[in-house]
Amino acid sequence: MATKDPEKRAKKTAERTAKKAVKQAAKKHPGAVIAIVVILLILIAVGVFLYLKVDSVHTFVNGLIGLENSTETNKNAPPKAATYGDKDLSFHFLELGNNYTGDSTYIKAGDVDILIDAGSRQNSADAIASYVDNYCTDGKLEYVIATHAHQDHIAGFTDTKSRDGIFKRYECEVIIDFALTNADTAVYNNYVTARDAEVALGAKHYTALDCVKGLNGAQQTYELGEGMSMTILYQKFYENTSGDENNYSVCVLFNHGDNYYLLTGDLEAEGEASLVENNDLPEVQLFKAGHHGSYTATTDTLLKVIKPKIVCVCCCAGAVEYTKGVKNDNTFPSQAFIDRVAPYTTRVYVTTLGILEYNTTSAKYEDKGFTSMNGNITVLSSGGGVTVTCSNNDTLLKDTAWFAENRKRPTAWAA
Ligand SMILES: [Zn+2]
Asked: In terms of domains, do 222 and 313 share one?
């Protein structure tokens, strides 16, 4: 029965016309209809996915592309050599020939020579070269690393009228240094001049950020020989500013077979936290005490991960250089540093001992010279064995007269 309502009639006519058009289209273009059905099925599938929890989708997708669902695996894992090769790897923490705290570490990796930092004064270059030349006989340092722009790490790289710095004394192949600095000091500017002169002679120069991101031809890991490598570890202050210059320190991890060795320059607590956060750090045989054994570095956050077996402190023990003439718990190596390290190892060594003199007029102590504590400290990784030998004596910090006189014994170091 035909409806009398003109609106309903119009609607029905439209429906009929539409159905007719679809039927005709299906006859004319069967492929187009199949395509519409497929699109509808895909839309339904997408709807189901959106209905699922986002995390579940991530888990599913990660499973498909082979990623594990753990934040731990987002950390950079260090390389691990399959063998020890037949060459030794040795670390030499050098006395600087003056009574100022500073760093210079020479590393011999088979036939490869590496220098990390060059001491606290321009005359450090003499002390460093006279030591390094016993091992490096071709005048070539394959890698030179400047950890950060403070004088006590870069002074020996610079030249004076009468004395050549390290860059001038050696042919330096690859120079790796800090990506950022707040420094605008004469020593920093002299460092840049000396470094750039070496680059003009053919040295390759990369920042730590270049290395960790593989930019400009830099590598994050350098193979040093069979079973040995050197890795620049990422930490956030390669690309974020810090009010503390020390946090810009280049951090380097060496691997030899199953063993690891970690040097972090003067990296402070914030930098150490970033290092732990971003790297799957291994337990290490050796850790160069952070910031010369300062109370502001070598934090529990780092120690509980790396569990060092040997700790070497590059400093002039007890010197009042940074405490304004006052003898206290914060002179290097600090009481807080000792307390934190003690549960992990008794094997703590210190390069140099400061000689102090009391000035009755100013009622302050003054740094008047230095003598060797352990002296130059050598940590030798040979096959699977790691040994320590020192140029002056092998006495552990806990057994020295300086420790007895100036520091409280942690429980872990019961005599
Ligand atoms: Zn320093």
From this structure: yes
